[in-house]
Amino acid sequence: MPWTRDDMAARAAKELKDGYYVNLGIGIPTLVANHVPEGIEVTLQSENGMLGIGPFPMEGDEDADLINAGKQTISELASSSYFSSSDSFAMIRGGHIDLTVLGAMEIAENGDIANWMIPGKMIKGMGGAMDLVAGVKKIIVVMEHTSKNGDPKFIPACTLPLTGKNVVDMIITDLCVFQRPDHDSPFKLIELAPGVTAEDVAAKTTAHYTT
Questions:
Q1: Which of 30, 94, 192, 202 sits most deeply, having the most CB atoms within 10 A of its CB?
Q2: pTM higher than 0.85 for the full model?
Q3: H/E element holding 103?
Q4: 133: domain range?
Q5: Which of 15, 47, 106, 109 is catalytic?
Q6: What is the pLDDT of residues 159-200, one digit of tens each?
Q7: CATH number of the structural domain spanning residue 49
Q8: Strand 176-179 and strand 188-192: pairing?
Q9: What residues contact residue 60 under an 8 Å CB cut-off, 6+ apart?
């Protein structure tokens, strides 16, 4: 069976290392916070100005002043700190964030990512996406393998406006995991979801990759 959204987040959480500073994008990536491995301590950063994000609050305990970049209510920790957006982006642009997990509409076989707009659709802006893919040390994308129309999302070249060029290190979908050792190498299929075959992946992927 293909992985669920929660399964994908759990797989991404396996890439976390002790002491990491991590930024989680909106959507599926926010679920990664629920799967931090035992014995691993990571600090979550939000580009709207918070370092040290706690778990999602229980119903009735929400504080409208405590939100992440996706406008979700969150909680604070004893170690949480707050600062301006400019300081937050200085952390990102300065290379101080170890890993970010993002969603995407399209990923190209050379590591290009398109995740901030669809032409003709109303958007609120690109948020921190372009800064994250340019300044963070490791970029993991978590997304459904195909669009709602069944079109592949891992493709030879992006057709949507780019967020960044040649920046993605790992792709986790509901079917499988692709990874590459460096930005000069092709992506390699390294893991399959339970019950999914390599042929299933090939049938829904137009990008070139190795096995």
A1: 30
A2: yes
A3: none
A4: 5-203
A5: 47
A6: 999 999 999 999 999 999 999 999 999 999 999 999 999 999
A7: 3.40.1080.10
A8: antiparallel
A9: none
